[in-house]
Write a structure and sequence with these properties.
Blueprint lengths: L24 H10 L2 E13 L11 E15 L7 E9 L13 E8 L7 E3 L5 E3 L2 H14 L8 E11 L6 E9 L5 E7 L6 E6 L15 H7 L16 H18 L16
Helix pairs in contact: 1-2
């Protein structure tokens, strides 16, 4: 498979674009990547759960059993019933009061509950998002990339790194091969030319060449890289290189990490799913 044809641009440091004041691009991508069902809904009723039904709940949150009307199915195989129910943990306000959820419009990232038609389980306790035009648009854009035939796979680690010196002083090429969940290749190349700033690119495919380019921030490929790659090349990836080659490969890897920018997450660490 050939890499995508494009102009090979100079390296630049990029920061992810915030999807909303509350959720970064990475926050939404984390939730969307885990959610087989995504809905636009309006809450019909919300009953606060207490006692044994609210175990393991932080003091700063309240737990609700929610019934909602589906306004739109954004993602999900086989359609959706008009009315759904689920459990959500929501933060209390500064005075310790629970929010009024009834009639609120929300975006839900969830999975169906086996054997219970219309019942959903949120993929995380905070996977009920307040609807806004910007969050809705950003979430739909992420889901479009996730479901595309050429969607970049999840990165599981660095598979190998190699550096080849050129014929001129200061000339060389570093190739970094990434492991993915699907086994599909993702490769990074860093080119050094005398008198020029180093340039780097990413390619999805077997061939890495100057047609490849860095990913744009706020895209799924950027997210896969910026939020998955280790801070440094693992030592085992440098064992086949001599000391000089290993030093250059590590420097080139730092160049890539700096070019990607930080993976900004604003959500607190969350369990993988909310209680049923």
């Amino acid at each position: 498979m050939a890499a995508t044809a494009a102009v090979f641009p100079a390296n630049s440091t990029a920061q992810p674009v915030a999807a909303s004041p509350q959720y970064s691009y990475a926050d939404l991508a984390d939730l969307a990547d885990a959610a087989p069902v995504v809905l636009d809904a309006r809450i019909r009723d919300a009953i606060r759960l207490e006692g044994a039904q609210a175990t393991n709940l932080p003091a700063s949150k309240a737990r609700f059993y929610v019934e909602a009307d589906v306004l739109a199915l954004i993602r999900g195989a086989g359609g959706s019933p008009a009315k759904i129910s689920y459990v959500a943990d929501v933060p209390l306000d500064a005075r310790g009061r629970a929010p009024k959820l009834k009639k609120s419009r929300v975006l839900l990232l969830a999975r169906p509950v086996s054997g219970q038609a219309g019942s959903l389980q949120l993929v995380a306790p905070d996977a009920q998002l307040a609807w806004s035009e910007s969050t809705d648009a950003q979430l739909r854009a992420i889901l479009t990339e996730l479901t595309a035939p050429d969607s970049p796979p999840r990165i599981t680690g660095v598979g190998g790194a190699f550096h080849t010196a050129g014929t001129l002083p200061g000339e060389g090429e570093t190739q970094i091969f990434l492991s993915t969940q699907t086994g599909d290749p993702i490769s990074v190349i860093v080119l050094r030319r005398p008198g020029q700033a180093p340039r780097w690119a990413v390619a999805l495919g077997e061939i890495v060449d100057e047609a490849a380019r860095p990913p744009q921030p706020g895209t799924l490929l950027w997210y896969r890289l910026a939020c998955s790659l280790p801070a440094r090349l693992p030592a085992q990836n440098l064992e086949s290189l001599d000391a000089t080659q290993a030093e250059i490969a590590q420097a080139d890897y730092r160049l890539v990490r700096e070019g990607l920018g930080r993976c900004v997450r604003t959500r607190a660490a969350q369990p993988s799913s909310a209680p049923r």
